[in-house]
Amino acid sequence: MATREEIADALSSMTLFSDLTTPQLLGAAGRFEEAFFPAGERVLRQGLSGSAFHVILDGEASIVVDGTQRATLARGEFFGEVSILLGESPSADVVATRPLRTIVLAGPAVESFLVEHPKVMFRMLQAQARRLRNANRWRD
Amino acid sequence: MAGLSPADDRPFPPGEYPVVIVGSGPGAIQLSYALRSAGVQHAIIGADAAPGGMFLKWPFFQRLLSWTKPYAPADHETRAYERFDWNSLIADEPNARAIMPTFMDGTSYFPSRPEMEQNLQAFVERTGLQIRFGCRWTSTRQVDGPNGPEFILETTDGEYRTPTAVFAVGIAEPYSPPTPGGELAAHYAATRSPETYADRRVFIIGKSVSAFELATGLLQWARGITLASPSPTKLSVNTRSLVGVRARYVQPFEDHVLGGGVTVLDAQILGIERDGDRGFVVTTRSGAEGEPMRHRADDVISATGFVSPLQDLPALGVATFGPSKLPAQTPYWESATVPGVFFAGTITQASGGLKKHGLPANSGAVHGARYNARVLARYIAETRAGLTFERPSLAPGELLEFVLRQLNEAPELWHQKAYLARVLSVTAEDGIRDAGILPLANVVDAGGPDAIVITLEADGTGAIYPVIYIRSGGKIEEHQLDPEPMMDFRGPVHRRQLAEIVGRLVPDATAG
Question: Is the ipTM of this complex over 0.90?
Fold first, then answer.
């Protein structure tokens, strides 16, 4: 993975970005940076400030709270948005369990990106609603 | 080792070495110096005929983007001066320290390219570093050695065999993204001398630093200049960091907003065609629903960046990422996928560290990479050469002043914010020990004994502030101190805050 066009192509197949036109996808691809994490490396760190929003391009990551694995994330899934939206440090570690490629948007850039791309914001809200529903089912 | 021809008195002939550095730019030179200081035998080979790397040729307009202040709040011979001198390499010998200002002619605090070349050459001469010039690395293969994998580096002079190969080859291979008709554009690297653009319409693809550098240099020559790329221009004065177009190249942007003949477009490049024998037509589209626009130009220049010339390393298994195809690295700049392959110089920017608030370290420039090199040399010495280094002890009563001195003067912390940290281990057996400067990402992720971890950080608002991490019982706590308008952290407020924080591990640290 390297070029803006290749990243835009990858984004087009993800639910989060599925409503964007090709020029919008190219624009979005230019706003994100690509990152690579070897297996075992921490991507987000519980309790440390200044984190970022990631969308998984390839690979797998675990959400770990106080050393306990809670969930697994794969291609097309995203993480880091909750702490950025709330202005808090992440409440969990996110650790690459296999070599992981993500696209990254720095925390301070997330609000303007979402405001400029309301369809992405709507898809993110849908995903959050599903997570909340599933969490409530689990509690029942 | 292989034999030498009688006429060839260059150092480091082909053969076996514990470490081989490929490159002869500032990153390679700094690492070689630091390895020698650490007592690690190594060879250093470079394709060029002289030290300097990219500075033998670039920047195109022959003036650096990184400053050195001949007159600064700290004396030249001190470590504190390094904060104000971004271009000298770092050394222990007094005559090899702060060399850059001694070559500057006073016309600018950005050294010229020839001044930078002189600076690097003088460093090599004064430190007596040996480099094998005119030796081009051509290919690589991995073989089994007696103690693990080893690498065979094929060069124009013969084979080098080593278990530890360090590539400091810069990010200087021109890159242009695939665009219909893209072959009609000249790359930044092929830009002609400025006067040949007199009275011509110039279309520059890209809006990053190199695009604005070209536009700045052509303002007094070109009839009109258009810069275009899909993403909006970021300016460093807005990001409060080195991210974005640097302040000294902002003039074309001002010209644009004042309607002076420069046009800055947020637009996708759809294609480039010939316009009969009168130049070119570049077709762009702005926004999702925008109509295509056609721009006539006499010259089209692609300022779309550079990639790292890694040659066959990806085929060896070195994972790369991003538009510059940089090698994925550990916090100690080792390939994340091929152990034994390390990187130095500007390539170390691919080891991003915590990148807090989206702000990168300065590893892509000399003033950041020079400290990475020193940390890497010690890491190689300890982990690959089996050497150990003294970790000086500190009395509890000295702790607070030590921390304050680091925050005010340590150039590693000022230049590599939230990336390199001064680490003090605290154990019942050993007391307080200075473990040196280490990568922050490794410190917070790898665990270890209780420790006080000292950093400076920034958040993109313009504030620079100390952050102290306390590692206690394997857990890390982050403590952010207040910024200070004059960036002097020795006042009573910071003393009180620091005493409280370090007191968690060292209760008898006094407020001094």
Answer: yes
